[in-house]
Automatic annotation (TrEMBL):
SUPFAM superfamilies: HAD-like. Pfam families: HAD_2. GO terms for molecular function: phosphoglycolate phosphatase activity. It comes from the Eukaryota. This is Phosphoglycolate phosphatase. One of its GO terms (cellular component) is cytosol. NCBIfam families: HAD-SF-IA-v3. GO terms for biological process: DNA repair. It comes from Capronia epimyces CBS 606.96.
Amino acid sequence: MPQVKYVLLDCDNTLVLSERLAFEACADLTNQLLEEYGIKDRYTVDSLLKDFVGQNFRGMLVGLQKKHNFQMPPEQLDDYVGRELAAVTAKLSAKAEPCPGVPEQLERLSQAGYPMAVVSTSAKPRVVASLKKVGIDKYFPDEHVYSAATSLNPPSSKPDPKIYLYACEQLGVKPAECVTVEDSKSGATAAMRAGIPLIAYVGVYGIEEGKEKMEQMAKLLTETCNADAVMYDWKEFPEILKKLESKL
């Protein structure tokens, strides 16, 4: 019998190669907003990723207002969030691909009897679109997809641990009885604050940015976020899980 009661999984750049696609979709909206407020700075996909990776668009808009010293009325913020969600969902539905090895490992977990849930910062429609596009939605019934942007009232965003604590409460498990996989500092921080054993997946940085960035993130997520293990490739997951379970 599995010793871990729930495997909780981040979605963006952990299960699905979606982060860059999503930031492509929201770069234009971000620059349009800055222009509306007479701010000369403009963002590229890479500069947005650098400043806001791991945050949802609502959290990003809050950060932009602080950084550039302007204030959006709540209804305008909601309008931009809605527009971004539609643009990103459409792009992911067309182009998303799984992180290498994910479908095989989810099937293995399913066959071994491990219950799984997605715990994401991103809005639920976007997460569901990603899971469907890459064919792994069968492992995550609708009630096991949790979103900091849409499952909570008021909405939240990692590194706030609220979405992890909410998911554990809904699933009827204690944080320490679970394990999670995260790729970003904000997600890993949320897991750490919630008290959930953490596997840091850094292989995505090797795919998108190179070995140096991958090693930097391995160091950061271990030293800053107390990751229990670092995973460079999803093929390593069974062995890592076994080691973590031996410590429970």
